[in-house]
């Protein structure tokens, strides 16, 4: 049995400027209407959005040679944008507020245009397990849950779940920021990472509590769900058509789950 959904693109070109999350380099992102799927363009290089084109999952998801694609894809997926040309001046998406807020605002301002329809058939539940890390995916109504576990270190356990829709993503997930444990910060900076972030755009987890102000008490779990939404949208399946549970997963395991989903799901585009 298949379920139908709308193929959508942005209603007009939108543009966002900022600094690369890790590189700190100035970058402009332009998202243009398209009828040819989701594609990234940077200089002379173009790559289609799909799990098979992921080249790295260290600290972010890299598609082709473009890094940190997950925050943009999470917003596009939550709004059902299945087709668009995404054009960057540098090979990394900007950090901005540390989440997806700016993409959400730009998409809402540009609006959406329906360009056709598609149907999804998912014949079996997708389950990816690596040690105690799991991602479970099934066809459903957009029920998502993420379980963030840091073991003996604070905060120990957090979870967040929701019935995912564009408005829920906007109000309850998009603002959740990239985070790091306090003891990791010096090492990240020494490796030349996180140059586009500061204490207003990244949440720091101290040994007994947050070192700066959290937006929500469970902000890390919400940001990990944001990452999971973006990584699974590599398959171009609107997340409100799936039921998903992530347990301790990160970019590597998210993308492996996306590869399995991509292989099991049958999508017909019209």
Any guess at the CATH architecture? 2-Layer Sandwich
Main pleated sheet: 5 strands, mixed
The succession of helices and strands, N to C, reads EEEEEEEHEHEEEEEHEHEHEHE
Overall pLDDT: 96
Shape: globular
The figure for the number of domains is 1
Structural class of the helix and strand makeup? alpha+beta
Distance between the termini: 17 Å
Strand content: 25-35%
Q: Class, according to the CATH hierarchy? A: Alpha Beta
Order of strands, widest sheet: 2-3-8-4-5
- Helix count equals 6
What's the name of the CATH homologous superfamily? lpxc deacetylase, domain 1
Produce a short descriptive summary.
The protein has helices at residues 70-78, 101-110, 166-173, 185-190, 219-232, 251-264, and strands spanning 3-10, 14-19, 26-32, 38-42, 45-48, 54-56, 62-63, 84-88, 112-122, 126-130, 133-139, 143-149, 157-163, 179-181, 203-205, 242-247, 265-269.
